[in-house]
């Protein structure tokens, strides 16, 4: 009869758990001490970028053939989750590096991969993703940014909005219309560099949360891009963008898991210490029930997210029939809804203290909110799920 160690279904591997331990230690030592300051000052978490880059954790998804760590989809999620547990803004470094570069990995030419993935892997550059526009959010297919062929180049004009890490990243995957009559089949993808003439950025948005991750508009004013910087064939950009989101929505689920875990961990410690009516408030059944519900929702979200990450990896390795579109949307939607509920309850458990900036929970609650919105609102996720029921 097989022993318990032989039944590894629904259990992460030893390597994944070792990775978790090392990222958690790094995050607590090098990222957590700056999290409140980064939020308060709404400044980029340079300390986190330095620590992540020094430990090859800033873009773990880049394949080994381009100088990267070659981490699988689940390992990438664990890195993002453990960083988000202490600082949601900092977790956007590995998350957005994957989002911005995945179109190149999925659809780019070999030359494009060598040119842009190697500096990303080395930590010499970050990568952002430019899909949304002022009038094209959930309806990304309605974008107006144009790319017009001119000899060996394309000339890009338009505005991209809500671009994470804009101004800090060196590289940008930009979706632009090459055939206005073909709707989504007339959209193409390009790599635009920060230093390209005609590229500029708006002022940082003043946001509710993730204040350490700059969100700006990207302005493209007659930006001339060599034709070989097109990602995939002309007209394939929107399909690449949607395929990218199938994979990267799972990283937002991981971010939601992390911030929820951080809030639950803090609340657990607090209720053991805080005394009212002569005993720790954690001894009261009403408080215990809240913690039980928080932990239950978090574990359900984690199982769904990890199952989705496994599907993402199998699809990357060539498998079909994995229902990745459904699972990616479900993980992102469920985990982010759970994170909002868990962080809100964690604030409640601290009472008045939870509402002050002297404690990290109000920051975690504010940070959790964005996970319900970006990479497709949870209303859009439900549409995606309904259209792709397994």
Describe the structure.
The chain has 390 residues and is α+β, with helices and mostly antiparallel strands. It has ten helices and ten strands. The chain has a four-stranded mixed β-sheet with strand order 1-4-5-8. A four-stranded antiparallel β-sheet has the order 2-3-7-6, with no helix packed on it. A two-stranded antiparallel ribbon has the order 9-10. A hairpin with a 2-residue loop joins strand 2 and strand 3. Helix 4 packs antiparallel against helix 6 (237-273).
Structural class: alpha+beta
Major sheet: order of its strands?
A: 1-4-5-8
Order of helices and strands: HHHHHEEEEEEEEHEEHHHH
Q: Note poorly predicted spans.
A: none
Shape field:
globular
What count of helical segments does DSSP give?
Answer: 10
Strand content: 5-15%
Q: Mean pLDDT across all residues, rounded?
A: 97
Helix content: 40-55%
Radius of gyration: 21 Å
The total of beta strands comes to 10
Straight-line distance between termini? 35 Å
Largest sheet: 4 strands, mixed
How would you summarize the topology of this molecule?
Elements: H1 14-41, H2 46-54, H3 73-84, H4 88-107, H5 110-122, E1 127-130, E2 146-150, E3 153-164, E4 171-177, E5 187-193, E6 199-201, E7 215-226, E8 230-231, H6 237-273, E9 275-276, E10 279-280, H7 285-316, H8 324-349, H9 361-370, H10 378-387
Parallel strand pairs: 1-4
Antiparallel strand pairs: 2-3, 3-7, 4-5, 5-8, 6-7, 9-10
């Amino acid at each position: 009869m097989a022993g318990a160690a032989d039944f590894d279904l629904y259990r992460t591997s030893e390597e994944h758990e070792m990775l978790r331990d090392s990222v958690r230690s790094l995050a607590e030592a090098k990222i957590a001490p700056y999290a409140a300051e980064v939020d308060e000052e709404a400044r980029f978490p340079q300390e986190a970028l330095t620590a992540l880059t020094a430990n090859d954790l800033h873009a773990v998804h880049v394949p080994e053939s381009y100088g990267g760590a070659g981490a699988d989809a689940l390992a990438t999620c664990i890195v993002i989750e453990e960083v988000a547990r202490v600082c949601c803004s900092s977790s956007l470094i590995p998350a957005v590096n994957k989002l911005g570069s995945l179109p190149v990995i999925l659809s780019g030419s070999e030359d494009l991969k060598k040119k842009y993935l190697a500096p990303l892997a080395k930590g010499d550059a970050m990568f952002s993703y430019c899909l949304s526009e002022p009038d094209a959010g959930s309806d990304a297919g309605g974008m107006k940014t144009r790319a017009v062929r001119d000899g060996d180049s394309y000339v890009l004009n338009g505005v991209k909005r809500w671009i994470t890490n804009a101004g800090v990243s060196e590289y940008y995957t930009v979706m632009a219309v090459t055939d206005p009559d073909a709707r989504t089949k007339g959209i193409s993808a390009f790599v635009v560099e920060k230093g390209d003439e005609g590229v500029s950025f708006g002022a940082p948005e003043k946001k509710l949360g993730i204040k350490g991750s700059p969100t700006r508009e990207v302005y493209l004013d007659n930006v001339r891009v060599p034709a070989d910087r097109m990602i995939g064939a002309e007209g394939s950009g929107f399909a690449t963008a949607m395929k990218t989101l199938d994979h990267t929505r799972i990283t937002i689920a991981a971010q939601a898991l992390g911030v929820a875990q951080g809030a639950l961990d803090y609340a657990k410690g607090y209720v053991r210490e805080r005394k009212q009516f002569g005993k720790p408030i954690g001894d009261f059944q009403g408080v215990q029930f809240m913690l039980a519900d928080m932990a239950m929702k978090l574990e359900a979200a984690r199982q769904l997210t990890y199952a989705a990450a496994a599907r993402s990896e199998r699809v990357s390795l060539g498998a079909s029939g994995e229902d990745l579109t459904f699972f990616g949307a479900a993980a992102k939607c469920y985990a982010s809804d759970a994170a909002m509920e868990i962080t809100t309850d964690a604030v409640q458990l601290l009472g008045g203290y939870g509402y002050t900036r002297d404690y990290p929970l109000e920051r975690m609650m504010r940070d959790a909110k964005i996970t319900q919105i970006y990479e497709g609102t949870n209303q859009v996720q439900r549409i995606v799920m309904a259209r792709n029921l397994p």
